[in-house]
Structures are given as C-alpha cells and as structure tokens.
Model the fold of this input.
Amino acid sequence: GQNIDQPTEMTATEGAIVQINCTYQTSGFNGLFWYQQHAGEAPTFLSYNVLDGLEEKGRFSSFLSRSKGYSYLLLKELQMKDSASYLCAVNVPDSWGKLQFGAGTQVVVTP
Amino acid sequence: ETGVTQSPTHLIKTRGQQVTLRCSSQSGHNTVSWYQQALGQGPQFIFQYYREEENGRGNFPPRFSGLQFPNYSSELNVNALELDDSALYLCASSLTSGGTDTQYFGPGTRLTVL
Done:
C-alpha cells in the first residue's frame, strides 16, 4: 500500500523557522507536492519537487531526497497567516495524476 | 484564487438519499479530479476525468460516479448516502492528465449526512 507520514501538529513563534518533514513509501514516484490549507478552504499549491535537492520560493523552500523517501517544507520568517495545515502529496504513476496525500501537519504560529 | 469553483458550498442530506455536486474547472483544463476529505485527514482520491472519460479511480464504491462536460464543468454523484460520506468534497483541475501537472483545487462542498 501507499504510506505518507507527516507530524500531526507543530507550534512556532512569529518570525521563527519551522521545518515540516514528510516520509513516503509508495509503489512509484512521479513527484511530490506541498499544499497549504487554511481551515474550511481549498488546498493551495506551494511547491513541486521531482528531482533531488532544494527548491526555494520566497519564504518557503522544499527539499527532496528520493533515495530516502523524504521531503521537507521549510517556512521562514513565520507570520500569523501561516497558521494552516500543510499537506504533503506524492504523485503515484500507476494512476495518471492521482495524488496520494498525507494527513497534514497543523502549524500554529503564536505571537 | 485558482479559478476553480464548486457548488453548493454546504449541503445537508439524510441517509439513503442521492446528491450531485458540481465543479467548474479553469478554462482550458481538460482534467478534473475529485477528492473526499474527512475532518483532520488529507484528501482521498475518488476518480479523475480526462476529456469526458473516467481516467482512474480510487478505492470508492460504484455508488460514487461522475460526469465531465465539454464546457469544463463536471459533476460528482453519490447514491444511497451513508453517514460516513459526510466530508468535504474537493475538485481539482489540471491542464492534462499527466501526473506532473499542478492540480488547482476548488473551495469544496461540505456534505453532511444525517
């Protein structure tokens, strides 16, 4: 079966850095996505990694190691509006465009 | 804003009833995927449609069915509703059915089954 694990909740202070880890064991791999989801809203796309290494996009960076089945999302200079659930999703090539999601990590930013 | 819309926003049904949820994809996006998201969980893949044909299906029974229309709109139908069907239903559109295309999600329909 497919297995995608991420921590349930993380708390950090405004202005700090938080790293959300995601490990996956899937029948195949065709890329990894990170989405942000505020309560009651749609997931919004943050990043996509298909090759090993770090992708930086403003305050957000995402890292991938395919050999270790591991990714992380790094949020820098945290702001209150970053309080949300962060979803790690693997594209599994046995079904076109099917995303296998983790349960999400709830990030709470405190003043 | 992703340009993907869904209706209705909220819906309450009773067990055994049938429901139709609607989605309007971004213009030009030929692929729509539907997901079910239970409270506190990640979205679970229901199925995907590409150019009006079902293109892949997750572990959902046949009472979950769909349609996609040429005008970039689509429907998710659920028959014989069960209490466990209570969830947020999300549609996501992408340019092609290829897995590397980013999927853009709509705001979802919150279904409550009593």
User: Anything to note?
Assistant: Chain A touches chain B at residues 4, 30-31, 33, 35, 40-45, 48, 50, 87, 89, 91-93, 95-104 (CB under 8 Å). The mean pLDDT of chain A is 92. The two ends of chain A are 41 Å apart (CA to CA). The longest strand of chain A covers residues 18-25.
